[in-house]
Design brief:
Number of helices of chain A: 16
Shape of chain B: globular
Structural class of chain B: mainly alpha
Number of strands of chain B: 5
Helix content of chain B: 55-70%
Shape of chain A: globular
Largest sheet of chain B: 3 strands, antiparallel
Number of strands of chain A: 23
Number of domains of chain A: 3
CATH class of the largest domain in chain A: Alpha Beta
CATH class of one domain in chain B: Mainly Alpha
Radius of gyration of chain A: 25 Å
Oligomer: heterodimer
CATH topology of one domain in chain B: ABC transporter involved in vitamin B12 uptake, BtuC
Radius of gyration of chain B: 23 Å
CATH superfamily of the largest domain in chain A: P-loop containing nucleotide triphosphate hydrolases
Largest interface: A-B, 38 and 28 residues
Number of helices of chain B: 15
């Protein structure tokens, strides 16, 4: 281990002139980076800015074409992650790599050099417990991993790297799957760890407030180059976004008022079960008119996913009614609803909203094969759908070599643009958008939000389900916080106060707000 | 690997074109023949002579060619019967049971019109043969439908169900033709009653018309997957049932549909062998042999990557080699099953070469990048 006995403020990881080329792109272009012991150094950049490449180089998953890496003052070459682990670098991946049938303890010692032959579980447990206490993690080491919440799994990953002796922790999108409360706890622990001379490098795409809240310094990447190196104290959300995107970004969208039409969706006393058989949705009632956005804000797992699925016809309603244009469609198939003018943007854009092995044309076909204009007498008019796909790709600026590319080669933001374009091109009268901007970078998020507003201006009724309270507040004409399967109130957008809505999302009844 | 001034590297393929896939298969076949020639050499036979025998019997011999084509028809139908559910992400291991169902269906029509007592039989083949075809398709479809329904409605594993149905249908045929069932040969020879001559399938140059049926169906299936709504729905379900449901595609109907269609094609294969191939014209004592042969449909389907057009050359090759190998073995006096051994080697190389569907070998001049666009992440 090269890093024994480092002092606060000493440089522990230095990167000089790292360049990595892939056919057709320079993913990293002469990148310099300097990480000091005890600092939290955020690396910020949009999807495709070269963050992942840099991260993989630092962890030995990729070899740079040019440039040098120094740990302490010694030059190192990583042939594989094992070399990186050996010098004290640990990586916490965005997608958890744990064995879900094993306990927390077993997962932490899995792959530890000492766990090779004889397991001393007792000693390991004590050591890990000590680590937990030092950094304020509360975790049941005997629990099975599948029983844990996302935030706890993240902690397990962190403990795993710490237990292997990491001094430098690379965190890939550390908060992307966490609820606000979990995020807070995690950030506190990260700060505690950094005080222990550990260097923390969170790689973050879009959650600027988090960068501002925890990091000491920020390095911003754009198109493979470092565009800014800043002391966090001297920056603002606005300036970070500008460095990252390369232009001014509008965070607050003015709520456009549109003349509202007739009621399009009515939901009465709706109830539904979750996958595990619990009552996830319990007596939800609301209605949406043409030309308005109805925003449902809530922490994930409070029934909003089930609500979207019931409305889309993908989950059975256990009670209550759903009406479109006054017609009861509670038990109508999802195909019937599409044909009645419903459009659904699912939150699982990779598993549900698209088919990775299908071309973009075939993905567009998913929403058009039943449409009389694009398929007659059982024959699909692929020529026509191809033209339509090209139009969507142009209008929604989906970055892709062409309409015959497979969907799995698109980045998350581009895939979401394609799905959005595909659904909106049907001119749906009722649009259900579930977590439409989750995981997207700043540019794509802004784009998607504008498109939702456009849909509203064109007289669609929009149901927006989001875990991002600011998004709901800035876009919605009505704000309805959801908690444990119930709407805690329905508040006109212009009268919604952030703090009150936040409290209602956590279960308190509407506080004197008009309903 | 380095050769001279250049370096060979494996690279991921971005996408596979049909022609590339075909080229890879041809290379695999050539390699299989080269490998198998070692066995001929060990047996003291000149491989060139052996291959000449095999291929001339299979494809250029007045006696062998009709046998090859008959087996080809059977294999094409069984392969397509596998391919349809395969495109929906489901595994049909039950072509055997389904073809038995088809054979029983055809013979049920004959039985219903009194063909068992051949002297009293007088129905016109113009009516009878279409009826037998329909009954064969329905018989196979009915067997397939059981698996499709259970899969769609209750998510019961289709592999287990189709496999079990093979056994059930095997013994049902045994009952029908020899254990006291109505289709028993009056002579009691452990086989079914024979077709009356008027029900023989029309022949074209000694080949039953089913060859056109099989080719036509393969083309039709290709069209179905490439152009039609139903083909799109099957493919979407096959790639991602969740995404298909999102798009409004019924998760109960698609499994049922693909197994009904697949079963119907396997049923036609049953009609072909037991009611159309000259010289058989009955459910023979060794019907189990044909049942086993249906398993080649799985291999052919996998090799042709679920493409019904590719199934045609693949089935022709397998049909030809199995016939040619069998007869060459006798002619050259070899003491082992050349047909099965050769098909076995062929299968292994074809499957192994599918590695190149995902990767390709590129030559790189050391120090310089090729302009080839690979997949990077």
């Amino acid at each position: 281990m090269l890093l024994k006995g480092v002092k606060l403020g000493q440089t522990v990881l230095g990167v000089r002139g790292i360049t990595k080329r892939f056919p057709g792109v320079v993913a990293n272009d002469a990148i310099d980076l300097e990480i000091k012991a005890g600092e939290i150094h955020a690396v910020l950049g949009e999807n495709g800015a070269g963050k992942t490449t840099l991260m993989n180089i630092l962890f030995g998953l990729l070899q740079p074409d040019e440039g040098e890496i120094y740990v302490g003052d010694k030059r190192v070459r990583f042939r594989s992650p094992l070399d990186a682990i050996d010098v004290g670098i640990g990586m916490v991946h965005q997608h958890r790599k744990l064995v879900s049938a094993h306990t927390v303890l077993e997962n932490i010692i899995l792959g530890h050099p000492r766990a090779g032959r004889i397991l001393n579980l007792k000693r390991a447990e004590e050591e890990i417990r000590e680590l937990c206490e030092r950094y304020g993690f509360s975790l049941d080491l005997r629990a099975k991993v599948w029983q844990l919440a996302e935030g706890e799994k993240q902690v397990v990953e962190i403990l795993k790297t710490l237990y292997r002796g990491a001094n430098i922790l690379i965190l890939d999108e550390p908060t992307s799957a966490l609820t606000p409360h979990e995020t807070e706890k995690l950030l506190a622990s990260i700060e505690a760890m950094s005080r222990d001379e550990l260097a923390m490098i969170p790689f973050i795409t879009h959650k600027l407030p988090i960068v501002l809240a925890i990091s000491d310094r920020v390095t911003v990447l754009r198109r493979g180059k470092v565009t800014a190196r800043l002391e966090t104290r001297q920056t603002t959300e606005q300036s970070l976004a500008r460095e990252m995107v390369g232009r001014e970004v509008i965070f607050r969208i003015e709520r456009t008022q549109v003349e509202r039409g007739k009621t399009i969706l009515q939901v009465k006393d709706l109830a539904a079960l979750s996958d595990r058989g619990f009552l996830a949705l319990n007596g939800v009632s609301f209605s949406i008119r043409e030309g308005e956005i109805f925003g449902i804000a809530g922490v994930s797992g409070n029934g909003q996913q089930e609500l979207a699925e019931v409305l889309a016809g993908l989950r059975k309603a256990e009670g209550g009614n759903v009406l479109i244009d006054g017609q009861d469609i509670t038990h109508a198939s999802s195909l019937d609803r599409w044909q009645m003018g419903m459009g659904y943007i699912p939150s699982e854009r990779i598993d549900v909203g698209s088919i990775g092995d299908f071309s973009l044309v075939e993905n567009t076909t998913m929403n058009y094969y039943f449409d009389g204009d694009y398929s007659q007498r059982g024959i699909v008019d692929y020529g026509n759908i191809r033209e339509l796909t090209k139009e969507i790709v142009d209008e929604y600026s989906v970055a892709t070599p062409g309409p015959d590319t497979r969907a799995k080669n698109l980045s998350g933001g581009n895939l979401q643009k394609l799905i959005l374009g595909r659904v909106l091109s049907r001119k749906p009268r009722l649009l259900i958008a579930s977590l439409p901007t989750q995981g997207l970078d700043v540019g794509a998020t802004e784009f998607v939000r504008n498109k939702l507003i456009e849909a509203k201006v064109e007289k669609s009724g929009v149901l927006l389900i989001s875990e991002d309270l600011d998004e709901v507040l800035s876009l919605s004409d009505w704000v309805a916080p959801i908690y444990e399967g119930k709407l805690m109130g329905i508040i006109p957008g212009e009268k919604a106060i952030r703090e009150n809505i936040g409290a209602m999302m956590a279960g308190s009844q509407s506080k004197g707000q008009e309903t | 690997m380095r050769i001279g001034g250049s370096e060979l590297k494996l690279e991921k393929r971005p996408a596979l074109t049909g022609w590339n896939a075909a080229l890879i298969s041809v290379l695999a076949i050539i390699l299989a023949l080269v490998l198998f020639s070692l066995i001929f050499i060990l047996a003291g036979i000149n491989p060139l002579v052996a291959y000449q025998e095999i291929f001339s019997i299979a494809f250029a011999n007045a006696f062998g060619l009709p046998l090859t084509i008959n087996r080809f028809v059977f294999l094409v139908l069984c392969t397509c019967a596998f391919i349809i559910p395969f495109r929906a992400g489901l595994w049909n291991i039950g072509m055997t049971g389904q073809l038995y169902g088809g054979a029983l269906g055809s013979f049920a029509i004959l039985f219903a019109f009194g063909a068992k007592q051949a002297n009293s039989f007088s129905l016109s083949p113009v009516i009878l043969i279409p009826l037998m075809l329909v009954a064969a398709a329905l018989g196979g479809a009915a067997v397939g439908a059981i698996a499709g329904f259970l899969k769609g409605r209750f998510d019961v594993n289709e592999i287990v169900v189709t496999m079990m149905l093979n056994f059930i249908m095997f013994w049902l045929v045994a009952f029908m033709i020899k254990e006291g069932g109505p289709f028993m040969n009056p002579g009691g020879r452990g086989e079914s009653f024979e077709l009356p001559a008027s029900a023989y399938a029309p022949l074209f140059m000694g080949i039953p018309f089913t060859v056109f049926l099989a080719l036509g169906l393969a083309l039709l299936l290709y069209f179905m997957f490439a152009r039609t709504k139903i083909g799109f729905q099957i493919k979407a379900y096959g790639h991602s049932p969740a995404a298909a449901r999102y798009a409004g595609i019924s998760a109960t109907k698609i499994p049922l549909l693909v197994f009904v269609l697949g079963g119907a094609l396997a049923g036609l294969a049953g009609y072909h062998y037991f009611a159309a191939v000259p010289g058989v014209y009955k459910i023979a004592r060794n019907y189990g042999f044909f049942g086993d042969l249906a398993f080649y449909g799985i291999i052919c389907g996998l090799i042709s990557l679920g493409n019904p057009l590719a199934a045609i050359p693949v089935a022709l090759l397998f049909g030809g080699l199995s016939i040619g190998g069998r007869f060459a073995q006798g002619k050259l006096g070899m003491g082992f099953g050349v047909d099965y051994a050769l098909l076995g080697v062929l299968m292994i190389t074809l499957v192994a070469f599918q590695f190149f569907h995902r990767y390709k070998i590129v030559r790189e001049n050391t120090g310089e990048n090729t302009a080839d666009v690979g997949v990077h992440r």
